[in-house]
Amino acid sequence: MGGFLLRRIAVAVPTLLLVSMLVFSLQQMLPGDAAVALSGEEHDPKVIQFLRQKYHLDQPVPIQYGYWLNGVLHGDFGKSIRTGLPIGEMIRQKLPVTIELSFLAIVIAIVIGMPAGVIAALKRGSALDYGVSAVGLAGLSIPSFWFGIMLILLFAVRLGWFPAGGYVNFFDNPLANLQHLLLPSIVLGTAGAAIVMRHTRSSMLQTLKQDYIRTARAKGLHERIVVVRHGLRNGLIPVLTTISLYFGELLSGAVLTEQVFGIPGFGKMIVDGVFSRDYAVVQAVVLCAAAMFLLMSLLADIGYALLSPRLRG
What we know:
The chain is mostly helical. The protein has 13 helices and no strands.
């Protein structure tokens, strides 16, 4: 198991380094000059020159990258050009919000999508199968921002059951925290449930055709034991990939959903950074998002090894 993990980490580290190079290089292609944007309305040349020297904007791109990477390796992402706050502190404030939202969404996706996929596979070709597939297709097709607005109009404006947006810290008021996050979690979880359902159905259809499933049934085992213990455990391997990558995508920042519900998470942070040309914030957020995506991929590999030991080799 140790060698398996080392091999995966050996692939992840250079991948993350390459991502950091791409993030920094592509950032330089964005229109506008950060020094000019910071200099105020008068655009005093002396102020612009001072800002370029302060933030190393007058240096060649490789030198700028070196300064930035050295800071990142020491846990220093720099300061926000727009707010003047340390970016690391901003990330520590925003990341827990997105993690909580993503966790609730992925729970909804698993609770709805996985049983629906198993049932659709067991009832292949039936009206129930077609109905579940149609609902899944609708879940994938409905735009998240439109779905979010409809939920706000129904449950917040008309019924008044939930707040229309905002965020309350869990430790300040757990109930209010859940009330604020439930609707956006449903928006994200619905799309995730559709994805999980489709992959679970496809994986279970392949698994239920295997010889060991026929052998288990021939032994007289109860159908539930055959499906859960023999079928679902082996069919979970590709589904685990889907869940981990979708969770990584959510951690990267559900931009539209966070904007619609006014949630101060990673998605809103990167949008604010792009609009204000806050290059350091954008670079830090994208790099952290890539790191989290790679981490979820690594956790998926570990899950593979636990579910199927033959994959460790």
